[in-house]
């Protein structure tokens, strides 16, 4: 079999990253090896995201860019997958005559057959949703794991239908994988040297709620933590309304579960939360935050906020600012609201100008930068256990991730990559920490 090269450009969430890893596994059987250089590729795939506005335009620009490569390489296969593919479907093939493949979020399993057809000159689009019984068996394991930390998908889809969100329309309804399959994948990863797993789903803490004789998410975490060789467990992304007492208790008594949680609030205003159809109040959200901090003192909390949702007043915006001060997020992903076609919020009139939204975003960014730096500085002088994952920012440094998720660079040797070390934090910056190996930890 002749060796061919595959370049994947991945946009958006961790789910897309995980899907791209699975694509590499599936296409390896057809002779494709990954490359980081598009010009060297025999196939280029764009794995896309449509959660934020402008996603389609970004994909269109990338396709136009890659068209020149296709002109220079007549056999080059060009494809689009992910959420934009799910949303646009055949329209992409019509708009871009040089495009060969369009595959939706439920159709990764068809990709090898689609590629065989494309190699013969066939153009094809597959974006049909499939039923849950079929979906349960369509999670091919990632082979050839080289990283120390890996994603493990435990569920897909979302049933919440937040008024601004397109995910249920492009990812489908929630389905949880069988626990036995998840644990089998985790054991395989551990056998390959993976030491940290990140349990992944659009609404990961609703795992198992609709499945008979399957564990709850909290029970699943305890089972994963019991796999020999796995030293750290993380999960993302959580919905506040499903952050149960049982799950919070895991932070108190499962040592392998890292002290970090991503819990998007999206707004600090009850009026906005109701319009967003989030299913909780500000008070209920803060109750979950207090419970998490009690279960694991020092837990690092990250989240998402939307600025300029339709009808957001200055008072609503101020409540988001005060929520940020009260929670004190270690990191916060901030987004200007953009209407997504087909969502309920897209029907609402927008009262704020783009300039007003950007001005509010800048105020949130300034506040979060201050809080993040203050939190990073609170680590000064502390001892942190790191999983060393690669080389650092500067020559002579290596880099690792603390239990809190903080990135720490320190003077070290590449031979330490893959090991756990203890460092003392000696400097704190906006986006990282600097450490030195502790002599007597």
3D shape: globular
Which sequence of strands runs across the widest sheet?
A: 2-1-3-4-5-6
Count up the helices. Answer: 14
**Overall average residue pLDDT:** 90
* Helix percent band: 25-40%
Number of strands: 19
Strand content: 15-25%
The stretches of 5 or more residues where confidence is low (pLDDT under 50) are none
First-last Cα distance = 52 Å
- What top-tier CATH class of the domain at 4-126 fits best? Alpha Beta
Question: What is the H level of CATH, i.e. the homologous superfamily of the domain at 4-126?
Answer: Methylthiotransferase, N-terminal domain
Based on the coordinates given, report the CATH architecture of the domain at 4-126.
3-Layer(aba) Sandwich
CATH fold node name of the domain at 4-126? Rossmann fold
- Which oligomerization state do the chains in this entry correspond to? single chain
Mind telling me the C-alpha Rg? 22 Å
Q: How would you sum up the major sheet?
A: 6 strands, parallel
SSE-based structural type:
alpha/beta
Explained architecture:
By secondary structure, this protein is of the alpha/beta class. Among the domains are: 4-126, Rossmann fold (3-Layer(aba) Sandwich); 380-437, OB fold (Dihydrolipoamide Acetyltransferase, E2P) (Beta Barrel). The protein has helices at residues 14-28, 55-72, 83-88, 90-95, 111-119, 132-135, 167-171, 179-191, 217-225, 245-253, 270-275, 282-295, 314-327, 354-377, and strands at 4-10, 32-34, 43-48, 77-82, 101-103, 124-126, 149-153, 155-156, 175-176, 196-200, 232-236, 260-262, 300-307, 331-336, 383-391, 397-402, 407-411, 420-428, 433-437. Strands 2-1-3-4-5-6 form a six-stranded parallel beta sheet, sandwiched between helices. It has a five-stranded mixed beta barrel with strand order 15-16-17-19-18. The chain has a three-stranded parallel beta sheet with strand order 7-10-11, with helices on both faces. Helix 1 (14-28) links the parallel strand 1 (4-10) and strand 2. Helix 9 packs parallel to helix 10 (245-253). The longest helix is centred in the last third of the chain and has 24 residues, at 354-377. The radius of gyration is 22 Å and the shape is globular. The N and C termini lie far apart (52 Å). The mean pLDDT is 90.
